[in-house]
Every structure is written in C-alpha cells, then in structure tokens.
Amino acid sequence: MKKITDIAHDFLMEAMNEKSIAVDFTAGQGYDTLFLANHAQKVIAYDIQLEAVTQTKALLEEHHCQNVVLLHKSHERVNEDVECFDIGIFNLGYLPHGNENITTDGDTVIRTLKKALNLLAGKGRIVLVLYPGFEAGKKESEQVEAFCAQLPSKQYDTAKLIMTNRKNCPYMMIIDKH
Ligand SMILES: C[S@@+](CC[C@H](N)C(=O)[O-])C[C@H]1O[C@@H](n2cnc3c(N)ncnc32)[C@H](O)[C@@H]1O
Predict the structure, then answer these.
(1) Mean pLDDT within 151-157
(2) Cys staple from 128: which of 3, 31, 55, 90, with CB 3.0 to 4.6 Å?
(3) For residue 95, what are the domain limits?
(4) For ligand 1, what atom is nearest to the CA of residue 131?
(5) Which residue has a Cα nearest atom 12 of ligand 1?
(6) Residue 12 and residue 35: Cα distance in Å, rounded?
(7) Reported pTM
(8) What is the CATH number of the domain that holds 16?
(9) Ligand 1: distance of its center to the CA of 30 in Å?
(10) Residue 158 banded pLDDT, cuts 50, 70, 90
(11) Number of domains within the chain
(12) How would residue 63 be classed by pLDDT, with cut points 50, 70 and 90?
C-alpha cells in the first residue's frame, strides 16, 4: 500500500487544477508545499518554525518554484493572507528530524479549520494527515475527528481513511465543501 502522505497527494490531486489556489497549513520539510506548487496556480504555506521555513525554501528553490508565498507564522492567521482557496492540507504532528516537542495543537487546528472552512471555495477540499502514535497526536486526532463529525452534511462531506490492521498508524481525514 502507498504511504499515507502519497495517498493524501492523490486526494489533493483529484480536487485541484492549474488554476487552484492552495494552502499548506504546515510546511515542515516542504514536500507537500512542493507537490502543491507543481500542480496549483499559487500556494500559501505556513510554519511556525524557522527551521521548517528554511528547509521548505531550499526545496522550492532547488525545484525553481516561484508560485509559493512562504510564511513564518501560525496557520491560525490564515485569514490575514488568504481571501479564498480551493485546496488545503494539514499534515499534523512535528517536524521530522526536528524538535518533537514543537507539534501542532488540536485547539489551534480546530480554530484554524473554522476560519479555513469560511475561506474554502465551493467544491473545495481540505485533507488532514493525523498521527495518533504519540500522546499529543492522539488527543489532536480525536479532536479533529470530532470536529469533522459535527460538520453539517448539507454543506460538507467528511471522510476518514485508515488502515484497519495497524494500531495507531497515521491516517487521513478529508473535508469536501459542496
Ligand atoms: C509533520 S510536519 C509537516 C510536514 C510537511 N508538510 C512536509 O511535507 O514535510 C508538521 C509541521 O507543522 C508545524 N506547525 C506546528 N504548529 C503550527 C502552526 N500553528 N502553524 C503552522 N505550522 C505549524 C511544525 O513546525 C512542523 O514543521
């Protein structure tokens, strides 16, 4: 089976085209940002860690990407930079090979999701990759799932994609806006 992050890219790809405005809410090492940059018109990417911003910037420069606005700030401030977007990803948890204590926070993610859903265009999609394999990640996953479950079905479809024979493996949530 493909890695969950590759499956997340498949789901992003399905809902995006060369005119799409994309948001990477957690730039990290820059792999998701690069993927979006290769397929969307414009990408706005956030990370609170300078180390992550530096890594993402280097990856984008290596690939000659010029359609990304890379921001060293919390995704919670998305409404300062984005009027409307079509596709978004939250790849949660901590920066691989970085400080594992600096991780995404469930409360902040929910507040950001509420703002993001108001900015998401009709037929838009948000994909979340969740990591319940550590304590904070488990709590965050439960919070995100509960939030998705209560979204009104008149406006949104939400889904969960998870391997059923592995404990605490990373998994995905998808939110589609009608
Ligand atoms: C799992 S990594 C992201 C992986 C990344 N998308 C990639 O392709 O390499 C999670 C990132 O979220 C960042 N982060 C944590 N809280 C954040 C926040 N409030 N706003 C933006 N980024 C945040 C962390 O600094 C970390 O780099």
Answers:
(1) 98
(2) 90
(3) 4-177
(4) 1
(5) 26
(6) 9
(7) 0.98
(8) 3.40.50.150
(9) 9
(10) very high
(11) 1
(12) very high
